[in-house]
What does this fold into?
Amino acid sequence: MKQEISNYIDSIKNEVFQLSEYLYHNPEPSFHEYKAYNYLINLLKMHNFDIKENYLNMSTSFYGKFGEGHPKICFLCEYDASPQGHIEGHNLVSAISIASALSLSKIISKLGGSVIVIGCPGELVGGSKLTLVKQGVFDDIDTVLMAHPYTINSQSGTSSAVIPMAIKYGQMDNKDNHLGKIYNLTDLCLLTLNTIQMLVKGFGENHSLTGLKITGEKDSPTNSPEIESCFYINTPKMHTAEYIESKVREFCETTKNIFNVASQVHIFDLPCSELITSQTLSRLFCHNLKECGIIHIEAPIKLKERPSIGNISQFVPCIHPFISIVEENNIKFKTTKFADATISQYAQEVVVKTAKALAFTALDLIEKDILLREAKTELFYTVNNTN
It folds into this structure.
């Protein structure tokens, strides 16, 4: 059946190329990907997928399904772009996932099970995947397969758990400030951030604060009426990030009482759990990728970004490998040259090979249910030994 998959993907490669080129020429911001959304759902409908449009009341999200029952093999589409275009190659994420899903749909009736394609808008700003997880969308999914374009070929790796926090300090009303003391809020903000930095560093080098941003009248010669600091807590495991968050809240409550100031602590974006790669799936995919002609695959790398697939990976076996779509070493990820490279002939050939490897991996899981059980058992022990 792998030969059937391979032949089918070869037969639709022009359709896949047109998809990636259309998205490249029509980049759209997060949660406003209307052209991409319409193109993708129409393509899936043309191939007899049942589509739930405007999924979960998100105007550019969709849920596509072909087949019935389990196993439910899920592919993810991402399609938002930055103002500079598809500098992260989300047009190719969609092209790979669509090609894999369409090819699997042509043989699934012979085997049993379902092919699921979920449109995930807004990946560049935290993504819809976090909402989809909270709504239980993946509770009935057996595995999630995706591959991301990059400048090297790399096995699916890990990422940090991330909690986005904001702390706001303000002066109390005069009637509440019975001692008449007024403190410089910028100094208090810096004291708090230095303390948090010390707390985080105590956990080791893989723990950090990033993305620090301070707003307010920092340069006022007197006192700022209000000042806010926003930052990301990055740790290898979510339970550590949550512990640090609790200590931050304790410290801010203490400073509020000591200095008689108003304080507010909140999460300004959805937290993102660390990516747990399924080693079972990664092993299968790497074998299939080599079979498809991509031989050199480097060791896993730790993602610097916070991929929202991390939240899915806590519940469903997942992989998120990187695939090189560039021939020139001087092309960097997240650049306009990288965006341009996504529609090169070389990149399109890579898309075909990667789509085949993902579909082959799905076929392995369907034909040998022991592999899927192995992946689920592995995830169960990983999660329960972590938390």
Remarks:
- The radius of gyration is 23 Å.
